[in-house]
Please model this.
Amino acid sequence: MSYQYWNPNPIRNDHAGDCAVRAVAKALDLTWEEAYVKLALNGFLMGEIMNADLVSGSVLREAGFNREVIPNTCPNCYTVKDFCEEHPQGVFVLKSNNHLATVVDGTLFDSWDSSMNVPEYFWYLPEDKKG
Model:
């Protein structure tokens, strides 16, 4: 598992609370601004704040992603790091501890090393929807 610092925020604000924007931007290969607008528009139409799980999920679902819950067999011992090691290929958006981060081909992309977070669920692009 590897971690790569990644923050497309135009002013590189590491404390912006924009994890949904960063995760969607990385997963969908968008600029930070494009992801921000997609989330803001969906949030507006849904009557929700743009970083609500429901809103980021709607944007990912529109892009063809599916959601899968991580089994609760070891709720405090399975980490984002473990997920990365078990998923060496593909694009995933992980929800953990009120945080979203993107994993691409086993590498965690985030503005901080969230590899010790405990993931709750993840979004993935099914084989039939890729490329």
